[in-house]
Amino acid sequence: MGTVGRVRLIRPAVALVTALSLITVTASASRPPERPVIALTDVLPAVAEASPAPGDGFRLTSGTVITASGAAAPVAGRLAEALRPGTGFPLPVVADSGARAIALVLEPGHPDEGYRLDIGPAGVTLRATRPAGLFAGVQTLRQLLPPEIESDAPQRRRWVLPAGTIVDAPRYAYRGAMLDLARHFHEPAEIRRYLDQLSRFKINHLHLHLSDDQGWRIRIDSWPKLTEVGGAPGTGVGGAGGGFLTKDDYRELVRYAADRFITIVPEIDMPGHVNAAQVAYPELTCDGVAPRPRTDMRVGYSSLCVSADVTYRFAEDVIRELAEMTPGPYLHVGGDEAMSTPHGSYLTFQKRVLPLVRKYGKIPYGWHEIAQSPSAAGAVIQFWGRERNSPSVATAVAAGSRVVLSPANRSYLDMKYDMLTPGGLAWAGYIEVRTAYDWDPARLLSDVPESAILGVEAPLWSETLRDSGDIDFLAFPRLVAIAELGWSPRAAHDWSSFRARLGAYGPRWIRDGVGFHRSPQINWS
Q1: What is the E.C. number (predicted)?
Q2: Phi, psi (rounded to 5 degrees) for 303
């Protein structure tokens, strides 16, 4: 265990990735300018309904414009930014035009985040009730054009969208990813890069794990030593993860995510996983003695002092400051692996802390252990277990709680793909792409009805991560499997279709410089 902190993921050499990219570009240049039109169903995640039409689709030309007004205009601007590099076309965004157009329209009548995309030779119309629905439709539209359209240099190609109609909406309201900043700190630029990739697959929540035994990664003004000590150099697993987010950093990430219709969910883990906080403030221990800093990967040894008033002053200050700078509805209070907190004390803690989240206008959110507390009624419960039933979660659901599913043996992105995977962990088993894909959220917990499922989330813990390349390698392509489970209807769940669509997406990741795992289960283009 002592060497784990020095483990780094071994990704394909930069030279190899560059060579592959050059091969792709060279091959593209040697092909005829026309290629087969991508089908309406060749999209990740799978669309709900697709009705191809005979005849020609819509051809982008130098005269094409994008029309949008009001709240639709920013989404139209992002579409134009994505399509200009490869086409070399100006693609101006205008309020109205008689020219050949891609029109983005806000109108009533569509499901929340849903959209309708109509494509014909005379034009394209994308309709939704909310800007989030338009943004989801834009992600679909981008995938209906060849990967080269978003390259850095204009391509000599005729860009054609397939004719027909797509009507689409998400299966679940919550489709999330989690990134652990505590075990290893990831800089804001790395988080923004991850947000960019998440948004391509209609992920709409990013859960940031901001504190743990090894580090504290968010500035709290009323307790400044949390980051001065818990975010100092030498913190993190193996001592290789120093750093923290200032409040300005955090607010900018919230804004950046919101521009991509992603909600940030902050997490402060307690009453366990608090060693870093106790190193900074020994009064948070029952004996007033600071524990030693920890850079190993063990869990379950730390606990706040449940009988001390200072514990609740600390908890309230942290919750209040986080709530003030978090516009999203959720605030995650952890609650997992509190093995050093006696059961009665754990219930006492949750009885006092969960109402504090509501006091500051947020919905309490926690790992499924909080379901043991009657105070968790109405909270969001994040199930991370491997069992097929959970009586405490079922009881919380009966009292009004909703559930986000993150089964460790299906959705934990830090698990190895197989026994030869460099980096990553294996305590929940190996998770190849098909393992991540082949489950139904509605049937995971036998004692929880689908009506209580808010959605799914794919956590990525950072014990063996060090940089964006490590994030890429473990998150992709498995995160796309979880995204499809969250967005696409149950009827669209088909491994053969998914693996074909995933394999065809590979050139887009190569273009974006994403060092994804080339799973042998997938025939990569």
Answers
A1: 3.2.1.52
A2: -160, 140
Euclidean distance between CA atoms 359 and 350, whole angstroms: 14
Catalytic residue among 148, 337, 432, 484: 337
Q: CA 283 to CA 459: how far, in whole Å?
A: 32
Which among 385, 387, 414, 26 is positioned nearest to 184, based on CA atoms? 414
Query: If pLDDT is split at 50, 70 and 90, which confidence band does 18 have?
Result: very low
139 CA to centre of own chain: 15
Dihedral angle, C-alpha 253, 258, 263, 265, nearest 10 ° = 20
Tell me which amino acid residue 435 is: T
Instruction: Give 510's contacts (C-beta < 8 A, 6+ positions apart).
Output: 17, 20, 21, 24
Alpha-carbon 474 to chain mean position: 13
Q: What is the pTM of this model?
A: 0.93
Calculate mean pLDDT across residues 198-227. 98
Separation CA 502–CA 480 (nearest Å): 8
pLDDT of 23 higher than 70: no
pLDDT of 85 over the 90 cut: yes
CB 415 within 8 A of CB 430: yes
Residue 306, φ and ψ in degrees, nearest 5: -65, -25
With a cut of 90, say whether residue 449 has pLDDT above it.
yes
CA 157-140-19 angle, to 5 degrees, is: 50
3-state secondary structure of 360: coil
pLDDT tens digits, 349-371:
999 999 999 999 999 999 999 99
Residues 2-9: what's their mean pLDDT? 36
Question: b/e string for 328-350 if b means 16 or more Cβ within 10 A?
Answer: bebbbbbbbbbeebeeebbbbbb
The Cα angle at residue 225 between residues 221 and 229, in degrees rounded to 5? 140
Q: Which residues are paired to 175 by β-bridges?
A: 456
306-359: per-residue pLDDT in tens? 999 999 999 999 999 999 999 999 999 999 999 999 999 999 999 999 999 999
User: Treating both helix axes as pointing N-terminal to C-terminal, what angle do 468-475 and 478-487 enclose, rounded to 10 degrees?
Assistant: 60
Q: Which amino acid is at 481?
A: A
Phi, psi at residue 301, to the nearest 5°?
A: -100, -15
Pair of tokens at residue 25: 């570009």
Tell me the sheet residues that pair with 75. Answer: none
CA distances from 461 to 333, 423, 425 (A): 17, 12, 9
For residue 320, give both structure tokens.
Answer: 């209040």
Which residue intervals of 144-214 are DSSP H helices?
188-199
Question: Is 337 part of the annotated catalytic residue set?
Answer: yes
- For helices 343-359 and 309-324, what crossing angle results, to 10°? 40
In 231-377, where does DSSP find H-type helix?
247-259, 275-280, 309-324, 343-359
